[in-house]
UniProtKB/TrEMBL annotation:
Domain J: 373-439
InterPro entries for the chain: DnaJ_domain, DnaJ_domain_CS, J_dom_sf, TPR-like_helical_dom_sf, TPR_2, TPR_rpt
Locations listed in the record: Endoplasmic reticulum lumen
Keyword tags: Endoplasmic reticulum, Membrane, Repeat, Signal, TPR repeat, Transmembrane, Transmembrane helix
Name of the protein described by the UniProt record: J domain-containing protein
Entry-linked Pfam families: DnaJ (PF00226), TPR_16 (PF13432), TPR_2 (PF07719)
TPR repeat segments: 86-119, 201-234
Length: 484
């Protein structure tokens, strides 16, 4: 009995021990399972945090290198893997705003604000997006209406501030710079675009146009040719290229005809070249000058005056244009205007003796123009014969004799004296020759003050009668065969 009890007690202890060990095993098993199951979750959380930081670093580097497409692709993948990754929406919205994909950018900002309500930075950037979008639309409208300066202000002060990588704004700015004739800035702007994409056809076209309007035609042609090698059927590039080739052809033809003395043909070619692009000032200044020189040679002073003035409107310091306009003014007998232009040219080019020579000629012409034109007074040409001079004198003397103009006696006397003075010079071969050569021989003649007076010592109340003895001899210091 005692032995059985011991055996029973030992069995119980063994059973309890087994139960205890079993419990310990279960607990250990559960603990190990927890470790095995929780470790990936902890690691995943840590990895998630690390991956996000690495992602945004890669995005930042892509933006610095202006690889916006790569940055957006990474952010889109991250959002697809974790739609609750708020910072990815913020980064994506910012990039899309910078490249002026405004509708997509606004959608991303709104998604970010759903995840992070009241975020002031995002709300501010969203406001900037709306400003940039509105400014870009306004700039396009102003460009279409021709208000290029105002459009440029919208682009530079708003769009390029909030959307600095906006290609649409960059191209519009380049077009506006060309429209406002700031060709150097247009070349710089398109140069930045080509640095990022050297095969950009629109940038090649705009940069070629800027060089074209600076009259750097060789460089312009190279830009057009590069674009056409990339796309031989590009309409605008073809149009610009062949228009420039035609302009150069017309210009050369005009210059060749002028140098060969085919002046009338040169005039037509110059006009044809000018008609091709009236706003191409940098080139047209040379065409206008060439046309002016040809017209001066043809003696077409009035037309030459217009062409030379066109040159000076473009470049007021063009010495050759001033000289040519001076020559044109001599042709139209604008003596004072000619002297003024030639003096200006001489001041700008004091060492040019040819300018001095033309100036002296103009000054002499001005001086001659200020003396009495005896030919004009008698109403005859400078080639009139002596008999024509006497005939004109007789006719006018009869017409203006004071006795025949009793109602206008004072004016008739003055006119009569002038006619007589004209005949005193032109009716004498020696005096006429000296007068025609430009010599001053009319001082003190025929206009009172002790000079030549057909009335002798006549005063206003003297009576005149005259007879023609043997025709109308004239000559001498009085009225010849006229007796008073």
């Amino acid at each position: 009995m005692e032995i059985r009890m011991k055996l029973c007690g030992g069995g119980f202890d063994l059973l309890a021990w087994r139960g205890f060990m079993y419990t310990i095993f279960i607990l250990n098993f559960v603990f190990c399972c927890q470790l095995i199951l929780l470790q990936p979750l902890v690691a995943a959380t840590d990895a998630k945090s690390g991956d996000a930081a690495a992602l945004f670093e890669r995005v930042s580097q892509s933006i610095k290198m202006k690889k916006y497409s790569e940055a957006l692709a990474e952010l889109n993948s991250a959002i697809e893997a974790d739609p609750a990754l708020s910072e990815a929406y913020s980064h994506r919205a910012s990039i899309l705003r910078q490249i002026c994909r405004y509708d997509e950018s606004e959608e991303s900002y709104k998604k970010f604000l759903e995840l992070k309500p009241g975020n002031s930075a995002a709300e501010k950037e969203l406001s900037q997006l709306h400003q940039a979008q509105s400014a870009l639309n306004s700039a396009n409208d102003l460009f279409d209406s021709g208000d290029y300066t105002k459009a440029l202000e919208y682009i530079e002060k708003v769009v390029m501030v909030f959307s600095p990588a906006c290609s649409k704004a960059k191209f519009l700015r380049a077009r506006l710079l060309i429209a406002t004739k700031d060709y150097s800035s247009a070349i710089s702007e398109t140069g930045y675009i080509l640095k990022e994409d050297d095969d950009n056809l629109d940038a090649l076209l705009l940069r070629g146009r800027a060089y074209y309007y600076l009259a750097d035609h060789d460089v312009a042609i190279r830009h057009y040719q590069k674009g056409l090698r990339l796309d031989p059927e590009h309409v605008e590039l073809k149009k610009a290229y062949f228009a420039l080739k035609n302009l150069l052809k017309k210009t050369k033809s005009a210059e060749d005809n002028a140098s060969k003395g085919k002046l009338r043909l040169a005039v037509e070619e110059y006009k044809a070249a000018l008609a091709l692009d009236p706003i191409h000032s940098a080139h047209n200044v040379h065409l206008h000058l060439g046309l002016c020189k040809v017209l001066v040679k043809l003696g077409r002073g009035k037309d030459a005056l217009t062409s030379c003035t066109e040159v000076l409107d473009i470049d007021g310091d063009q010495v050759e244009a001033l000289v040519q306009r001076g020559e044109a003014k001599l042709l139209v007998e604008d003596w004072e205007g000619a002297v003024a232009d030639l003096k200006s040219a001489a001041e700008k080019s004091p060492q040019d003796m040819s300018v001095r020579e033309v100036l002296m000629k103009a000054e002499r012409s001005l001086k001659l123009s200020q003396r009495k034109d005896w030919y004009k007074i008698l109403g005859i040409s400078k080639t009139a014969s002596m008999s024509e001079i006497k005939k004109a004198y007789k006719k006018l003397a009869l017409q203006w004799h004071p006795d025949k103009n009793v109602d206008n006696r004072e004016a008739a006397e003055a006119k009569f004296r002038e006619i007589a003075a004209a005949y005193e010079v032109l009716g004498d071969e020696d005096k006429r020759t000296r007068y025609d050569s430009g010599e001053d021989i009319d001082e003190g003649m025929g206009m009172g003050g002790g000079g030549y007076n057909p009335f002798g010592g006549g005063g206003g109340g003297q009576q005149y009668t005259f007879h023609f003895e043997g025709g109308f001899p004239g000559g001498g210091g009085g009225f010849g065969g006229f007796h008073f």
